[in-house]
Design brief:
Layout (H helix, E strand, L loop, with lengths): L5 E5 L4 H12 L3 E6 L2 H14 L9 E5 H7 L2 E4 L6 H7 L6 E4 L4 E4 L2 E4 L9 H8 L4 E4 L6 H4 L11 E4 L2 H15 L4 E2 L6 H18 L16
Parallel strand pairs: 1-2, 1-4, 2-3, 4-5, 5-8, 9-10
Antiparallel strand pairs: 6-7, 8-9
Helix pairs in contact: 4-5
The protein binds NADP nicotinamide-adenine-dinucleotide phosphate (NAP).
């Protein structure tokens, strides 16, 4: 296995954070599921840990208040809704951490899901996180993997994780962690500003899901035999 990380999942009581936390721990990483209330995080962590009983090499899973989870971790996954994102992220001491955002600012109306316009189209949730935590290194990843699949029965998803960021070493952390989800490293998909594309792209997957009654995902062709 690749490097083992200690990952704080902010919003770890929600389906996306819990599902990614489960996958990471199943692959040997240590996971601290964070919540605005430690009392809420602990039983969710117990549920994830129980599911990992008997899994060879699984990492420990615990629950804590968000700030305490961050203090214990070298990698922080932001898995909270866009509403309230800035207030929460601004309250955390993320200095020196590698921060991965999977936050999708989405909106819904009678025509379905669509991307919420962030900063008149010149911004994204991941870029907001970087502005709010200038001493952290923020990357975007895991925007397009479905919580249903993360907590589902598949060993690995037949999908790719696209990783965007401005610092190669930080992107490599998310690329490593993607192995826990898809069994292969994530794809370096460019600079952090491309989170403006990855975040609303999930609205397209939601439309596909509605049309065909599936949980769709992304797979990039043309990379066979290429080292990621
Ligand atoms: N669900 C998916 O399939 C999926 C797929 C890809 C990406 N995402 C993205 O991942 C993020 C999390 O998705 P989710 O479905 O797990 O979301 P969620 O269930 O709505 O929220 C996750 C957790 O965030 C915390 N939270 C809720 N409102 C908050 C607020 N105003 N301020 C701070 N914390 C708050 C809650 O935890 P506590 O009450 O315990 O603090 C909640 O359990 C979203 O940005 C979503 O766009 C989701």
């Amino acid at each position: 296995m690749l490097t083992s990380y200690t990952i704080a999942v902010i919003g770890g009581t929600g389906p996306q954070g819990k599902g990614l936390g489960y996958r990471f721990a199943r692959h040997g990483h240590t996971v601290v599921l964070g919540s605005r209330s430690a009392e809420k995080a602990v039983p969710v962590a117990e549920e994830v840990a129980a599911r990992l009983t008997g899994v060879d090499g699984a990492g420990a899973v615990s629950g804590a208040a968000n700030a305490e989870a961050v203090a214990q971790a070298d990698v922080v996954l932001l898995a909270v809704p866009w509403d309230g994102h800035d207030e929460l992220v601004g309250s955390l001491d993320l200095a020196g951490k590698t921060v991965i955002s999977c936050v999708n600012p989405l909106a819904f109306d009678k025509r379905g899901a669509h991307g919420a316009v962030v900063d008149a189209g010149e911004g994204s949730a991941a870029e907001h996180a970087q502005q709010l935590a200038p001493e952290a290194t923020v990357v975007g990843a895991f925007h397009n993997v479905s919580a249903v699949h993360l907590w589902g029965e598949y060993d690995y998803l037949d999908e790719d994780v696209l990783v965007v960021g401005d610092v190669v070493e930080a992107k490599q952390v998310a690329q490593d962690l993607a192995v826990a989800v898809t069994s292969r490293r994530g794809i370096d998909a460019g600079k952090l500003r491309l989170a403006r594309v990855l975040e609303p792209l999930t609205a397209v997957l939601i439309s596909v899901n509605r049309k065909y009654k599936v949980n769709s995902g992304l797979r990039i062709s043309g990379l066979e035999g290429i080292e990621r």
